[in-house]
TrEMBL record:
It comes from the Bacteria. SUPFAM superfamilies: NAD(P)-binding Rossmann-fold domains (SSF51735). The keyword Oxidoreductase applies. PANTHER family: DEHYDROGENASE/REDUCTASE SDR FAMILY MEMBER 7B, DEHYDROGENASE_REDUCTASE SDR FAMILY MEMBER 7B. Belongs to the short-chain dehydrogenases/reductases (SDR) family. GO terms for molecular function: oxidoreductase activity. Pfam families: adh_short (PF00106). This is Acetoin dehydrogenase. SMART domains: PKS_KR (SM00822).
Length: 287
């Protein structure tokens, strides 16, 4: 069980921005040893510099495309060699796609599946042998980041929701496999709601999509900071929680789908409609 991050070897994907960057900073403040990965070299370098300033005992930053199995495997093996063991693996990297099933291109579907699902699968399978070899006294834990859209299938997010539901099922199965064999490795699945990050700004969208409106609606519904999300995730690791919903919206989504099933759908649509109407009103020129 991980109760203290000081000196622990911790890995984070998607560390150049958003929740991943916030996790890197929070772990650095606790004196962790960090292995950070992202495809954004410039953002990753900035995260690594700041993590060192915040007190990380050791920081390695590697440009890794999590959709590429061989790159993740090489990174995992190199990380274990550098640190001698791996105590915490956080598969956080993710991207977004705004498009209906009719509108999306197969290439976009494959792109988002490669990062959001295969990235998690690659990270889990590549690092699991190293987590098994970790000193039990220092603990070993795996965190896979899903989404509140892995609890409820949102319109225009069919591909994104598919990846996040896949992360959910994959992670639950891994946890039960480890539990059945009596392993001490902890597994947490995180379900963030609307987080104030650049994921939608950097997302792909179907031709003709009003990207400015999509971003504005996302921003209006996103009430949780990346820093809060990082604190919740790291606190959940200490408590060995198996699942954690981050933000009031994620908690409402979880409870609503459990209690109401498909009857919860009109509630969500109404909420989105109100947010979109508010964005349109604010964007309208004054007469």
């Amino acid at each position: 069980m991980i109760r203290d991050y000081a000196g622990r070897a911790c890995t984070v994907t998607g560390a150049a921005s958003g929740i991943g960057q916030a996790l890197a900073f929070a772990l650095a403040e606790h004196g962790a040893r960090l292995a950070l990965a992202d495809i954004d070299a410039e953002g990753l370098d900035a995260t690594a510099r700041r993590a060192r300033e915040l007190g990380a005992e050791q920081v390695h930053a590697d440009v890794v495309d999590v959709a590429r199995r061989e790159q993740v495997q090489d990174w995992a093996d190199t990380t274990a060699e550098r640190f001698g063991q791996v105590n915490l693996v956080i598969n956080n990297a993710g991207v977004a796609l705004t498009a209906s099933v009719d509108e999306m291109e197969w290439a976009d579907f494959e792109w988002i599946m490669g990062i959001n699902f295969w990235g998690v699968a690659h990270g889990t399978k590549s690092f699991l042998p190293h987590l098994r070899r970790a000193d039990p006294a220092r603990g070993a834990h795996l965190v896979n980041v899903s989404s509140s859209f892995g609890l409820f299938g949102m319109p225009q997010r069919s591909a994104y929701s598919a990846t996040k539901y896949a992360v959910r099922g994959f992670s639950e199965s891994v946890r039960n496999e480890l539990r059945r064999e009596g392993s001490t490795i902890g597994v947490t699945t995180a379900y963030p709601g609307g987080i104030r990050t650049s994921i939608v700004r950097n997302s792909r969208a179907a031709p003709g999509t009003d990207r400015a409106e999509v971003v504005a609606v996302h921003d209006s519904l996103s009430k949780t900071s990346p820093e809060h999300a990082a604190r919740v995730i790291l606190g959940s690791v200490r408590k060995r929680r198996t699942r954690v919903c981050i933000g009031l919206d994620a908690k409402v989504m979880d409870l609503g789908t459990r209690l109401l099933g498909s009857a919860f759908e009109p509630v969500v649509h109404a909420s989105i409609g109100r947010a979109r109407a508010k964005v349109v009103r604010q964007a309208a020129p004054l007469s």
